[in-house]
Amino acid sequence: MSRLTGKVAIITGAAQGMGATHAKAFVEQGAKVVLTDLNEEKGEAFAAELGGNAVFIKQNVTSEEDWTTVIAKAEEAFGPVNVLVNNAGISMNKNMLEMSLDEYMKIVNINQVSVFLGMKAVAASMMKAGGGSIVNISSINGLVGGAVGYTDTKFAVRGMTKAAALNLAPMGIRVNSVHPGVIATPMIMQEDAKAAIEEFAKHIPLKRVSQPEEVSQLVVFLASDESSYSTGAEFVVDGGITAQ
Q1: Is the full-model pTM beyond 0.85?
Q2: What CATH number does the domain containing 69 carry?
Q3: Which key words tag this protein in UniProt (predicted)?
Q4: CA 151, CA 142: separation in Å to the nearest integer?
Q5: Degrees, nearest 5: CA angle 16-17-18
Q6: Which residues are the active-site residues?
Q7: pLDDT one-digit tens code per residue, 148-189
Q8: Range of the domain at 45
Q9: Domain count, the chain
């Protein structure tokens, strides 16, 4: 039996990048997956590529109304939801002194508020399913400093994960956070950034960046019953960067 057989999962920001890698791994492991994203064209095409166990729903993760719609459509398509992966997120490479309040709040709403909304919205469906697993994608910048806005919100995701784990444990719902380091996504491996990334990789204890699938395998583990006694914890996948 595959590791996620019988699971119904929602993965946000899943039209491309790491979210898409997570979705592919989930389908391969037997889950039925609802992919959400604002990019409708890419999302629809990718869901079709994954086959009958995947559907796409356009979603603004900062909208409480959209969350209600996504949960309802997920239940209609596949039944009560067992797994939520809060993957959607953005960053902005700006100095704090140059960042406007509107820019800052956009990061806060997408990276932080959406996680709160998703956890709150999915709880009732997970109770119908008899329990579930929420996986919040943070970052190593939820453990150490980095860009303003991104770092703050990723620390917040780590904290919310612990608070939510305590709130939801009596309902049989586990909540954990994942903290990736440098991942070889198409965005960071473009020619203008590739040389800098390869130079940085020399300073990573494992001497390389992570492949997206290495993060997805950790997310699969946390979504599965294999991690049945893990909740309120952070799981780091960074090649040893934060151990230095």
Answers
A1: yes
A2: 3.40.50.720
A3: Oxidoreductase
A4: 6
A5: 120
A6: 150
A7: 999 999 999 999 999 999 999 999 999 999 999 999 886 666
A8: 8-184+211-237
A9: 1
